[in-house]
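Regression test case RT-17, inverse folding.

Input:
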């Protein structure tokens, strides 16, 4: 036996215990979040594609306003490469190696830029965060486009989807809205 055998075995044992604790924590999180509604199924035709699809990374989905409370249920906490498409009926996140996520336009309440969420931190305003209603729970879904210059286009396209009943950029001003009432 070499002089480092004991140290190597102790290191391997510590790593095994840490991995087991991580898996136990993830399993408990899944159990606590079992009442969270499943995301809507991806429609066969999500509607007209309103902008070029954007390659990037699906960061995760968290409880709205709590960027550390990752949603583990329904594979929403799994980070993966993805393609984000802004369609007439909603936002489609086609994920590689995980279930696709479809966010119906009617459920989108906000879209903004952020610097990070649940283990992914980037330059100032480098993430696109979509706030939407998943069943009766408000959630935030993060996406990091591969090319930073795509963020403003995605932000504008998704914000236009959230304007229920109003075509893209024709949302009336508050003054016009009062006149129409």
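Golden output:
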């Amino acid at each position: 036996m070499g002089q480092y055998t004991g140290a190597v075995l102790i290191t391997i044992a510590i790593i095994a215990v840490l991995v087991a604790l991580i898996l136990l924590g993830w399993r408990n999180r899944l159990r606590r979040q079992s009442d969270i509604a499943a995301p809507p199924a991806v429609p066969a035709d999500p509607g007209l594609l309103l902008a070029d699809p954007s390659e990037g990374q699906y960061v995760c989905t968290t409880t709205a306003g709590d960027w550390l409370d990752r949603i583990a249920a329904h594979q929403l906490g799994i980070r993966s490469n993805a393609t984000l498409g802004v369609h007439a009926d909603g936002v489609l996140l086609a994920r590689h190696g995980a279930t696709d996520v479809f966010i119906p336009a009617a459920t989108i309440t906000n879209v903004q830029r952020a610097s990070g969420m649940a283990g992914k931190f980037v330059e100032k305003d480098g993430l696109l965060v979509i706030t939407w209603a998943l069943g009766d729970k408000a959630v935030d879904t993060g996406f990091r486009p591969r090319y930073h210059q795509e963020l403003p286009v995605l932000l504008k396209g998704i914000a236009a989807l959230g304007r229920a009943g109003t075509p893209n950029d024709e949302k009336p001003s508050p003054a016009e809205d009062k006149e129409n009432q």
